[in-house]
Amino acid sequence: MAALPKMSVMNVSPAAAERVRALLAKAGPDEGLRVSVEKGGCAGMSYKMEIGEPLPGDEVIESEGARVIIDAKAVLYLLGTRMDMKSTQFSSTFVFENPNQTSACGCGESVELKPAGEEPALSAVEP
């Protein structure tokens, strides 16, 4: 019986892959765009990106010639996420369509995330 293909932690849109390829044009052969989440901002967490090599436990996604590395500690927060690009006349930025996001701050710099598979907290209701 043939093995099922491994599902990616995150999907990368063609526009995001194009931008990642441009960012990595002068990077080393083992480097990629490393995506992680860190505590901070008014909503609790923010996405962090940097050029780097994968560390043990990281997930590596190859999409249309673009290499994206997912930090091992961020995998549960990014399962099912789609990475895309948003462009306006004056700027362009990566955006994350994340099903694990429960809220975001008004400025868009930070988000509240729950690990995939974790049920949202229920509030106590009096009978």
TrEMBL record:
InterPro entries for the chain: ATAP (IPR016092), ATAP_core_dom (IPR000361), Fe-S_cluster_asmbl/transfer (IPR050322), HesB-like_dom_sf (IPR035903)
Q: Which organism is the protein's source?
A: Methylocystis borbori
Sequence similarity: Belongs to the HesB/IscA family.
A Pfam family name for this chain?
A: Fe-S_biosyn
User: Where's the Core domain?
Assistant: 10-109
**This protein's name:** Iron-sulfur cluster assembly accessory protein
